[in-house]
Amino acid sequence: MFKRILVANRGEIALRVIRACREMGIETVAIFSEADRGAAYLDLADEAFCIGSARASDSYLKIDRVISAAEVGNVQAIHPGYGFLAENPHFADVCRSCRIEFIGPTHEAMSLVGDKNAARSLARQIGVPTVPGSDGLVEDKRQALSVARQIGFPVLIKAAAGGGGRGMRVALTEKALESALDQAQAEAGAAFGNADIYLEKYVEHPRHVEVQVLADTHGSAVHLWERDCTMQRRHQKLIEESPAPDLDDSARAAMCAAAVNLVKAAEYTNAGTVEFIVDRQGNFYFIEMNARIQVEHPVSELVTGIDLIKAQIRIAAGEPLPFAQEDICCRGAAIECRINAEDTTRNFQPCPGRIEKLIVPGGFGVRFDSHVYAGYTVSPHYDSMIGKLIVHQPTRDEAIACMLRALSELRIEGIHTTFPLHKQLLAHSAFAEARVDTTFIERTSIG
Amino acid sequence: MGSPSSTQDVFDVRKIRRLIELMNDHNLQEMDLRQGDMRIQLRRASDPVAGSLPQMQPVLAPTAPAVAPAPAAPPAAAEPVEDPNTTIIKSPMVGTFYAAPDPDSAPYVKVGDPIGRDTVICIVEAMKVFNEIQAEVAGMITAVLAENGEPVEFGQPLFRVKTA
What we know:
The structure holds two protein chains of two kinds.
Chain A: E1 4-7, H1 11-24, E2 27-33, E3 47-52, H2 63-72, E4 77-79, H3 89-97, E5 101-102, H4 107-114, H5 116-125, H6 141-151, E6 155-159, E7 168-171, H7 174-192, E8 197-201, E9 207-215, E10 221-228, E11 232-233, E12 236-237, E13 239-242, H8 249-265, E14 270-278, E15 284-290, H9 297-304, H10 308-316, E16 333-340, E17 342-343, E18 349-350, E19 353-354, E20 357-359, E21 366-370, E22 377-378, E23 385-393, H11 396-409, E24 411-413, H12 419-427, H13 429-432, H14 440-444
Parallel strand pairs in A: 1-2, 1-4, 2-3, 4-5
Antiparallel strand pairs in A: 6-7, 6-8, 9-10, 9-14, 11-12, 13-16, 14-15, 16-23, 17-18, 19-22, 20-24, 21-23
Chain B: H1 13-25, E1 30-35, E2 38-43, E3 86-90, E4 95-98, E5 114-115, E6 120-126, E7 129-134, E8 139-144, E9 151-152, E10 157-162
Antiparallel strand pairs in B: 1-2, 3-10, 4-6, 4-9, 5-8, 6-7, 8-10
């Protein structure tokens, strides 16, 4: 087992990893930018090094500095968290070349699943349903039009190198498609450094359901059931839950099995998430796989009772999974709300500033994962998520009631946050009846 | 805990807490640490006589009057001497600080040496690469703030330079 791990991230996920390490008796080395200097969670690490100025590109994304900190900090492994360098195959490769284990998949598996087009091809090869679409990248307008006519409008133009819900455009007609193609390529080139695009049929009113997977380095791969992340705003998740409500048992089983098959076919190891969209008829289609631990991992932890971060560390240390698929049950229902420092009255404008007062809810089945506290200053340099409120109860109705209760206790003063919106969403009958899709917030213009 | 500080907090509460732990662990009666013109003294009230003092750096620059000694409690922050004609050269990277090109050679610079913008003043070793660090200011070295062979982080003070 590792004696020391460097946490190559910040904020709540850095704290999450440090917590797991402390319980396992593993020392931690934290890194921070000048904007994060003084944050309380850094005191929980055994050592902490400043690796650059506020901008992520000058600090958390600087591979050479992260590796230097790992070397002076004398660590055996690096946990990348999510975002930043977590899905950078070059970083994973550099770590291992420097004889530092990367807590995640091999860089080859990461490259494969990170290329959305290649992942789709693999899925099709092994019989995992994918959304009808172009058979690969779309090279020119003529080809795009021909594919679109074949699969039927509306179509979705997607960036092959995109992710996190970015780099997607819907085209409703042939005319719209032509201009959308140019824009999508330009945006993709600017945002991801790669203008490659492909087409998919646009599934209307889709539900977003993803499967948590774990695979060790001894050939064993399991799923930890699914999470429904349909409640989104502009492709950014707001609420996640497990199990997916109103999902046929056979569809659930087939989807989870398909996820495991994909993991095995890609020779993927460690933690990952396989994303599907589910249409109104209950058909599921693979869209992409995320080669990292995700923000909403606590939802799966609560319903399965498995600590995913510890599992990641153990897999990276070469241990076999201590459980088989039949040991993994989904008990009760868990819901997570992502709390962002954003002003919902001003189009979700990020709202950095000092938190003057913070009252965190508690009670049976309530978990709050956050690095913030009264007196903490939310800086403008990073994403706006300041915490996750997660509840776990025996039934979905009880989980909704518990989350509403917990949200009513939560007090954050000094900055604007999104949790009042969560109260509205959870109290909405459509959520209770599982009648939402990914366009719900835009259509009902809540918040 | 306060908001992230924008200045180089040489004596932050976290470090002071560790110093106190060290004193307790090794049964020290007094600790007198200096870095540049910052100084911190920790002394146990029960024992007025100093034991052996682990000194980090030879005192080469005038030290400001520092801290009120307190019985195993963190003292108030030291007051650095502000001189408009001095500047601090900070580490541009994370790594290990070396004062000399190799263990058998003399240090690149010592206190009192004049330096130009291109003068190599130290090495910061990172990922097995020995990076020669240039001064990027002209003047005279008035203090060496980092210890040979110690890890340094981004922004850590390495040298004090008198520029005028």
